[in-house]
Structure formats: structure tokens, C-alpha cells
Prior knowledge:
Elements: H1 3-16, H2 19-26, H3 30-44, E1 49-51, E2 56-58, H4 60-82, E3 92-98, H5 100-107, H6 111-117, E4 121-127, H7 134-137, E5 141-145, E6 153-161, E7 163-167, H8 169-175, E8 191-192, E9 202-207, E10 210-215, E11 221-222, H9 225-233, E12 239-242, H10 247-251, E13 256-258, E14 267-274, H11 281-296
Parallel strand pairs: 3-4, 3-5, 8-11
Antiparallel strand pairs: 1-2, 5-14, 6-14, 7-12, 7-13, 9-10
Amino acid sequence: MDRIQAMQVFVRVAEAGSFIHAAQTLSLPASTVSSTIKNLEKYLQVRLLNRTTRRVSLTPEGTQYLVQCQEILKLIEHTETSLTDSVKRPQGRLRVDMPGGIAHFIVMPNLKDFYKRYPDIYLMIGVNDRQVDLVQEGVDCVIRTGELTDSTLVARPLGQFRWVTCASPAYLKNNGIPQNPDALSQHKAIHYFSGHSRRTGEMYFVRDSKQISVPVKGTAAVNETGLYIKMCLEGFGLAQLAENVVSDHLGEGRLIEVLADWQPASVPVSLLYPHQRFLSPAVRAFADWIIELVRDGNSVT
């Protein structure tokens, strides 16, 4: 039995809480994962996991063994990378999740630069606005916007996205330009909803440290940034978006900012990853790249 491989499998099962999920993230048959754990328990002569039809959980001995295995595996990884050129030339598979707007309008236009720098990294980009469970879903790091609530993750701040209220020239020609939030009662907005928020009918503003929310009528709500922008371009109503996401549209006049004196509050953007004693070179490379990209792209205020 390869004890190092058995430790890796055990850690994955313990973190995922499922043989099936662990097998998927390890690209192994579920039967192989199950037999590996059985052989490991037989070798150690101790039960590491309690099994049910839906989930597995750690025994007290399994909890102790998990902590020790995690330390051993990280030490092995750190030792190997310190003796090779992988720190200078990061490699391997890297799973990163991020909101659609960041993926389409910040990462994608600069992705060729990333591969010029790190040609040996196999990047897996997950695009969604829901909050993923990094350990459960095998995600190495995630970009999130807004205030953070998960204290179990390491957060690396990327900056603050400046948000703008905007509309198409055609919409403003037909409906007029609002001069203050009170005027929005005569306007329509494209509403946006997400998995963690059902409040779709309001727009938010800040002026002189005063924050207000204004209900605005609308005819549709979406939960994907690309569609949200397209509906704004087509004149369906007002929208509130990160300035860097629509900078080209604003610069070329396809969208026009309104209520500039009542800007929405800036939104913090962070890169999160699980607590690790030794951060992998691939995660470190991506973190450094995205921070530089955001800073040089004037995406923050």
C-alpha cells in the first residue's frame, strides 16, 4: 500500500464528507477510494470513518489522524517544491471560482497574459454568483465580492470596485435623465437577483456618507452579469454595475452614467482560499496575477 497516496485519499474523503465527492475531485473510481480507506484502516488497525448511507464522518481517531496527515502532506509538498523550479514555474491543476462579471470582463480579456507567464498551470474557471464550499467542491481559491462572512477561509483583499448607475442613450432619450434618486419613481430598472439575496427591486446610493435604498419599478430580473449588461444596452432600464466591467461601453458612449453625485457604495473584492500552512505555488501565482491585474486596470478606488 502506498501510504502517502492513502493519506491523500483519506484527507480528501474527510474534507468532502463523501466517498463519491472525493472520488470525483480525485478523478478516481469510487470503488478505488473505498478500498483504499479500508486498506488504510486495516493497516492502522483503527476505524477512521463512520459510514452512513448519505455521509461519512470522522471518528475521534480519524480526527487526530486527519490533522497529522494534513501537516505531513503539506510538508511533503513544500519540500518537493523547494527543491525544484516549480516556485519559479508553477504548474498543475488550479480550480478558481468567480462571479460572471469578473470572469468575462476582467479575467478573460487578460487570460493570454496569464498563460504567457504560467504555461504549465491548467486553469479550471468556475463561473457563478453563488457561494461555493471550497473544500466540499475541490476549489483551490475563489473571488468574492461584498462583505465576507466565512471566517474559516484566508482572505486576501483585491480592492474596492467602484459602482455606477447607467443606462443606454436610447433609454435616456425616451425617459429623460434622472437628476436625483427621488426622480427614479418615473423610471424603470433592470433588477438583479442572486442565490443569497432575493431583494431585486431596489437601487442603492451614497452621498455625503448617507446611504439610501430606492425602490424602482422594473419589467424583468436576471441573475447573470452578461445578460444584465445586454438588457441595459438594449434600453430596458437603468442598471448598477462595477465601473470596470462596463468601462468600454461607457468610454464609447454605448452606456451613460447618471446620478454621479449619488454613486452606489464601493464593493470590496477578495480572493479566498482554505487555511494552509504552505500555500501552493499555483495559488500564489494566480493571487499575485489577479491583484496586479485589478490594480493596473484601475478597477478599484
